[in-house]
Design goal:
Elements lengths: L4 H7 L7 E6 L2 E6 L13 E6 L12 E6 L2 H14 L5 E7 L2 E10 L21 E4 L7 E3 L4 E4 L8 H12 L7 E8 L4 E7 L4 H8 L5 E5 L19 E5 L5 H12 L2 H11 L2 H13 L14 E5 L4 E5 L10 H4 L38 H8 L1 H20 L2 H16 L6 H16 L2
Parallel strand pairs: 3-8, 4-10
Antiparallel strand pairs: 1-2, 1-3, 4-5, 5-6, 6-7, 7-9, 9-11, 10-11, 12-13, 12-14, 14-15
Helix pairs in contact: 3-11, 7-10, 11-12
């Protein structure tokens, strides 16, 4: 594993250490400062506070260290609010990343099914919960190596290696992906847990990934779908959240109108004007080959839609691969893993979408998505999907790329995290992924 091209670009030419970009009168100046100087930053009209360290944040060859200090009363109130209303409130915390301390960062719960059953009675282990860390929630433009957000993922395996491997394979497949790293997470000096941390698909991520700061990025909400609800933007408040670009739901609404209401002939002839169909065929094939039923047409509606301003076409962006691969025989199941519909790539109980070898029936095992249903119902688009299956199987599996990724993650965790997870568990979870790959 190595530092990504996007991360190298982000760090190129930047001095390591904490940098304050400040304004004094009408003259801009850049000064170096330590974390202790940040509390006085407001006196000098801070424009940007960017922390750093000599270890690149998304260098996946390193098991990184994250410590969070939070107020117990704030935490209890956050959990109570979620339990009673479902709202995920922000609280102010101190975050230390690889030894660099950042004050007044934001922390909130992140996830849906992963939070099932969370109450004030069951929330005694914050180091085990899924989190979104947002460094600029309370301090404008505060960042770490240019990043403002970090997602602490949940997983029913001890290593989360299944998601880590799947995320890297997204890059092999040529699809938009997020950087992922293994971390040790400690909250208020308590127990330390091995956790997977990832980039959060936001405005910074979208610009880095797609190379354009004018693109629009929309996140599909877990309780929503891809249905057309009329031309009133307010009707989509609980269905999509815009994460990047100027606030504008009109392109999204027009896309959903076409997907839902175009007749079959028009859909076949003009979908390529609205959607990158080759990329979408690859996306569907990828989900099948990693055995992920919880995708665009799964129960969580897990996806983003990105509108390329140059082509005026949408791309379906993957999110949430913690149910990738058939690891139930190691993890003992849990939400999703080993549960209904999880049978591994190519199995009869696969992700609920088209099985390997041919398009399946409409909808997912638990959800359903009008875009994937109509796409696979068309012979020409289904052929694109079949071609993508063959190409991806060769690129990811036959080439040995997936095996190499599994081997590297196994070595990193064995060398740097065996005090948290037994080597036998690391090796067993790696073996389960390899078995799933071989079955694809």
């Amino acid at each position: 594993m190595s530092i990504s091209h996007r991360l190298r670009t982000r760090l190129a030419g930047a001095a390591l250490g904490v940098v304050l970009v400040v304004t004094a009168c009408s003259t801009d100046a850049e000064v170096e400062a330590g974390p202790d100087d940040v509390e006085n930053a407001s006196a000098i009209d801070v424009a940007e506070v960017s922390f750093s360290d000599d270890v690149a944040l998304f260098d996946s060859s390193v098991v990184h260290d994250i410590e969070i200090e939070l107020d117990e009363e704030d935490y209890a109130q956050m959990i109570e609010t979620y339990e009673t209303t479902g709202e995920k409130d922000w609280i102010s915390v101190t975050v230390t990343i690889d030894g660099t301390t950042i004050e007044d960062a934001g922390l909130r719960l992140k996830g849906n099914s992963s939070l099932f059953g969370l109450t004030t009675e069951t929330a005694d282990a914050p180091e085990e919960l899924p989190w979104l860390v947002q460094l600029d929630e309370f301090v404008d433009d505060q960042s770490y190596q240019g990043y403002t957000d970090l997602v602490i993922r949940s997983n029913s395996t001890e290593t989360a290696m299944n998601e880590a491997v799947a995320v890297e394979l997204l890059g092999v497949a040529g699809l938009a992906t997020q950087e992922a790293i293994a971390t040790t997470l400690t909250v208020n000096g308590g127990e330390t847990e091995l956790r997977l941390a990832m980039e959060h698909p936001d405005e910074i991520w979208a610009e880095d990934e797609f190379g354009d700061d004018d693109g629009l990025l929309y996140k599909a909400d877990s309780e929503g779908d891809y249905s057309y609800r009329g031309d009133d933007p307010d009707a989509y408040d609980d269905v999509f959240d815009q994460k990047a670009g100027d606030d504008d739901l009109e392109p999204l609404i027009e896309f959903l109108d076409f997907v839902n209401n175009a007749d079959d002939a028009t859909f076949a002839a003009e979908l390529g004007d609205h959607l990158d169909v080759d990329d979408f065929a690859t996306y569907l094939a990828f989900q099948e080959l990693i055995g992920n039923f919880d995708d665009i047409d799964g129960p969580g509606n897990n996806s983003y839609l990105y509108l390329d301003p140059d082509t005026d076409r949408f791309t379906v962006v993957n999110w949430d691969l913690n149910l990738a691969f058939d690891t139930a025989n190691v993890s003992g199941g849990g939400p999703g893993l080993g549960g209904p519909g999880v049978g591994g790539p190519g199995g009869d109980a696969g992700r609920g979408g088209p099985p390997v070898g041919g398009p399946g029936g409409p909808g997912g095992a638990f959800g359903g998505n009008v875009l994937s249903e109509r796409f696979l119902a068309d012979d020409d688009f289904a052929a694109l999907y079949e071609e993508a299956l063959v190409e991806l199987r060769a690129a990811m599996y036959d080439s040995g790329a997936a095996n190499d990724i599994v081997t590297t993650w196994t070595e990193v965790l064995t060398d740097q995290a065996s005090e948290l997870v037994d080597v036998s568990t690391i090796e067993a979870e790696a073996a389960a992924i390899l078995v799933s790959i071989q079955g694809a």
